[in-house]
Amino acid sequence: MAEGQGETEVEARNKVSESEVEESETDTSPAREQEESVGEALQDRASDDSSQTEAVLPSAGILDTDLLTVFRANWETVAWAVILVAAVVSRFYELGVRGMSHDESLHAVYSLDLYRRGTYQHNPMMHGPFLFHANAFIYFLFGVSDATARVMPALAGVGSIMAAWLFRRWIGRTGALLTALIFLFSPSILFHSRYIRNDIYIVFFSMMWIYFMFRYVEDRKTKWLYYTVTVMALGFAAKENQFMSGAIFGMFMVGAALWRWWTGKEQLRDSSFADIAVLLLTLVLPFAAPLGHLLLGWDALAYSTGLDLAKSAFLVLLMTGLSAAIAYWWFSPAQSGENGTESRDSDPQKPRITFGNWATFMALFWAIEILLFTTFFTNPVDGLASGVVGSLGYWLAQQAVKRGSQPWFYYIMQTLLYEFLPLFLSLGGLTLLVHRLRTGSWGGPVSEETGSTGTEEGSGDDSALSESESTQISSSVRPYFVTFLAWWVVGAWLSYSYAGEKMPWLTTHMAQPMAIFGGWWGAQVLHRIDWRRIRETQGWWLLALLPALLFTLATLAGSIPTGGRDLDTVSRTVRFIFALGLTGALSYCVYFAYLRSGWRLTLRLTAVTAFAILFLLTVRFSYLLTYVNYDMATEYLVYAHASPDVKRALQEIETISERTVGEREIQVSYDDDVAWPMSWYMRFYPNNIFYGANPTTEAMSAPVILVGKKNYDKVEPYVARDYVSRNYRLVWWPEESYKSSFDEEGVEIPLLDRIRRGLTDQERRSRLWQIFFFRNHSDQTLTEWPHRHDFRMYVHRDIADIVWDLNVVPKAGGGQSQPQSFNYEELDRRARVAYNGLYDGVALANPRSIAIGADGLRYILDTGNNRVVVLNADGSFRLAFGSTCLLAEGESGGCIDPDGTGPLDLGDGQFREPWGIAVDAGGTVFVADTWNGRIQAFDSRGYFLRKWGAFSIVAEEDLEPYALFGPRGLAVTPAGNLLVADTGNKRILEFSPRGEFIRQVGGGGIILGHFEEPVDVAIHPPTGNVLVSDAWNRRIQVLSSELVPLYEWLIPTWESQNIWDKPYIAVAADGTIYATDPQFAQVYVISSGGVVQSSFGKYGDDLNRFAKPTGIAVDPLTGELLVADADNHRVLVFAGN
């Protein structure tokens, strides 16, 4: 009982009677007029003190001012400084790393046009002109990039956070800090502060709009209306949902004015609320012309003809005249007040707005609108038509379209996923507000503003004003401001949920009022916690016990036994039992702490605990959304957004350009289906070609072609033969199964039933938890995400092989033979040994090819290390030779001159990604130095002997034999000549051991004697024929010893055109053929007559599995089979067949 009495006394000290509040609300003393803010009051006192103590001293210059007297640091100052730093870092960190989305690229491109050419025409589809002018200004200051295009939104995001400081006078210092903290980590606000959309501008302008309006309500100084009109105008020039904000704000002002009139506090014409309501209405009435179009059946978006313009002009002038009439009626010289009393014209402390003032406001508002919508009079007619009439007209039309087709509960879902913290706080605020409206108890001026009472020690939220000053400036307006916040929250929820168009970025406009309102309520809770009593009763245990209890309750809910004896059910049952026992123990501890602290203190500490938990979750989700999953469709705020593939493709194009023509001079053509965002990125490529939906010969001859999914069939005939391609994800959307669900009979399941099933069914509950907490969709992978729009990048075949490190998938040419049916046995063969140790101190890295000498030496082409490793027949290390040399780059590419002033050249004996190796009967080792475009010969000790070839692409009319484009497979003929698979030039070459050219065969195509990606060559001992792995034609082509084409054996599974999937072949003495299949991680065993008999291997790293098997060789002495298991960085040795 004593504890309860103590709480009652504390509560009593925090209350003030309704009559006291009403007195402060109607107080119009001169002191109130003289005090504008806490800062001004302090400044006046400081100046008075200084004038008394330093009157005899000369005035000091600004450079003589002591900084400590200018910046008076306290904990509040430190807190705001930390918030400012965090706001700047969080908004600007890696601002350009995310790819441009569809809408962002539109905004960025048209801003760029305004900056570079001074051309911009307002289009309501892209909302207001403010964004484009602001971005153009940033381009002027900082240049053009993804990051600079987002600078203005980031600045607006920082400004929105710091604007919370202005609300200290109405929600207290703690409330303002909490509001700024919520703004700082709000997922929707943070994400869209780094996004070129207009919504963050509306957030910032709304903050300033509210502040200036209520400052005018406080002291009725005209300057606040000038500021109000300015930010209003900028907001209406930013986005059309400012109309919605204006309606919410204006309706509150009307309601407040009527309430004060109804309760006898003041006459309507004396009401500053009424003045603001009339001002808001009359300023925006010309924008309401589209309503006249609707009534008259006209098209508000038609302004291409003189008649259309005349209709719109008529309605705009009509609305403007109506505005002037209303303003004249309201702001004209006042008549006698009601009941014979005088209006405030007679009160000098309440200066009345005159019609002349209104005309100035109107001129200011529309001067800003006209300048921006007409782009400073460069587009006067269309700009006025699309801005004044088209803005609201287009926005209203979009509500009927219902873009996104989202359900009525869409924002509830988004808020539960992201903005649960301000939702929780605002619900608490609504509860407290209802209580105060019913009881009339708003708390004394000191307890509300400073957060301290007679029994609360050191709460420290003092504004440095006297009690009378605080009452005059803050208390009279605070109830209306807090009620306004609640009205704003409810109004935003109702209006945006009712509107036809529901989009994720609009969530910011509900998060904003909830954050401010929630900040106020959070401060109220903190101010009413008796921290001294917590120390005395050890109530701080509750702060630890409550989260633990919540965790055990959540564990209980997720571990309800379902029956059964399987391991998962037993585990869940045991977890349930332990959680139940722990819940009981924690509940007892919480109850004991409750008995010591009382229910009020327990309830407040519970609220603080809930805030802390929700705040930490908000920080987590905000971080994941903004810095990890920023372009992943698993996030529900990532809507119609560019996938990560966009920047990957652009990086590949840049690499191609740098390796072929230098810089970004390569020609890139793109269609209308990828125009956004590619129009933004193609600004880097001066030779780009836009072909829209109609491919042209010029566009289809570009080295790189980008095409959206809708134009695949149009482009395919142009590129099927000569281009390789890869598919990418252009834009994607979150999964939307929440919209509706159907049972097995096709009947839609009601929403409540879906919620019930989701909460009661273990599997569905687990899936919902995975989505909520991890953003993980267990039934959908990102690679196969169904909600997406794809595009394809075609690269000319001649160029694709140059950029060897790109994962490009070639598009097969037309006219290919139908694959034969396979009927073979799959074997499980296990390697006898794996060569995967350290050789000369270095492990193998992506070995691509193998050769075995007549003496049994094993020559491994250690491609990743650009060397040859030679092992003895027993697998022991013998020697290694070779190193890295990018021949085209000379010494800067690692190339060295092996003998200084001797006969050898720079780079002799070095390699750049070699893919082929062979050894002749005399021990001469031949290496295909693939990306240096040459063949090198070495003796058995690894000493360089000679070289031939140069990196080049041959033309059909010039089949220069020494122009090699990515040579790979090598083979030595019975006559001792060397066969070379010149892969990039689609041919097979024969040279003498010394490099003299003998003959060639090939060229691109599918007919015999032509190749598409010939990778390897081998000799068929029984016949002497030449076998070629013609990879992209999915066959082994058989040539005579004179390279005359004979026939083909189809290998249908060689379907991959990935640049790493290069199949190699080897032939045993009895004619058995072995062929690797890197894509499917297997080796085929083929009869001497070309029939596939069996296969072995699957993907993995065991001794019976492979990862990209490429090179293959047969030991002529033992019959052992050696396979280069490239991505497992080893060579496997199998026993002979």
Automatic annotation (TrEMBL):
The keyword RNA-binding is annotated on this UniProt entry: no
One Pfam family recorded for the sequence: NHL
Keywords: Membrane, Repeat, Transmembrane, Transmembrane helix
Bilayer-spanning residue ranges: 125-142, 174-194, 200-217, 245-262, 274-292, 312-332, 353-377, 408-434, 480-498, 510-527, 539-561, 573-594, 601-623
Annotated region described as Disordered, given as residue ranges: 1-55, 445-466
Biased composition (Low complexity): 447-466
NCBIfam families: flippase activity-associated protein Agl23 (TIGR03663)
Protein name, as recorded: TIGR03663 family protein
